[in-house]
Design goal:
The chain is of the alpha+beta class. The protein has two helices and ten strands. The protein has helices at residues 2-22, 26-47; strands at 50-59, 65-66, 73-76, 81-85, 102-106, 108-115, 119-127, 132-140, 144-151, 157-164. Strands 1, 2, 3, 4, 5, 6, 7, 8, 9 and 10 form a ten-stranded antiparallel β-sheet that branches. A hairpin with a 3-residue loop joins strand 6 and strand 7. The radius of gyration is 25 Å and the shape is elongated.
Length: 170
């Protein structure tokens, strides 16, 4: 009877060990999620088709300003850029009839992509109706990004936010 009980305990422990040995650790699961996110971000940059959503802004000589979520964006495609971002800072040659934000639509020119260890730098120039905008993205592989906007008629401004794939219309 003792041999049957010890044999039964041995078999249960072997089966239990084999089941737990197949499970992935939290560290491995986290690494898989990070690698998946990194591959998604690389695919967006290779296609040059993504949406930047601004969450914070820092005007030149100013302090950090929290923005409303899901409100301010820049849609970047290889053939067109659409932008609706707020502006806080000094304007040099802006008429009174404008709403004050950075709103434009145009074709990106001089697109340059530079890959670094943990991020990618993307630079482009976009000519709007009344101004020329130099955009410089620092895109990190976890999905966060910073955007610096320089224009002829306004002081430079920086935005912090996230990038993601554009939503398709169903």
């Amino acid at each position: 009877m003792k041999t049957v009980a010890s044999l039964l305990v041995f078999l249960v422990s072997v089966f239990n060990f084999s089941i737990t040995a197949q499970e992935k650790t939290k560290k491995e699961l986290k690494q898989e999620r990070e690698l998946k996110k990194q591959n998604e971000i690389k695919a967006l940059l290779d296609a040059q088709n993504f949406v930047f959503e601004a969450q914070k802004t820092t005007p030149q000589g100013g302090r950090l300003i929290q923005l409303d979520y899901n409100t301010y964006f820049l849609k970047f495609k290889a053939d067109t850029v659409t932008c609706d971002l707020p502006f806080f800072g000094r304007g040099y040659n802006i008429g009174y009839s404008t709403d004050g934000g950075i709103k434009f639509e145009g074709k990106p020119q001089n697109i340059k992509v530079e890959n670094k260890k943990n991020s990618t730098m993307l630079k482009a120039t976009v000519r709007g109706k009344t101004d020329v905008y130099d955009l410089m993205f620092s895109i990190f592989y976890n999905g966060s990004a910073t955007l610096s906007v320089n224009s002829n008629n306004r002081a430079p401004i920086n935005y912090d936010g996230i990038i993601y794939a554009p939503k398709t219309k169903e």
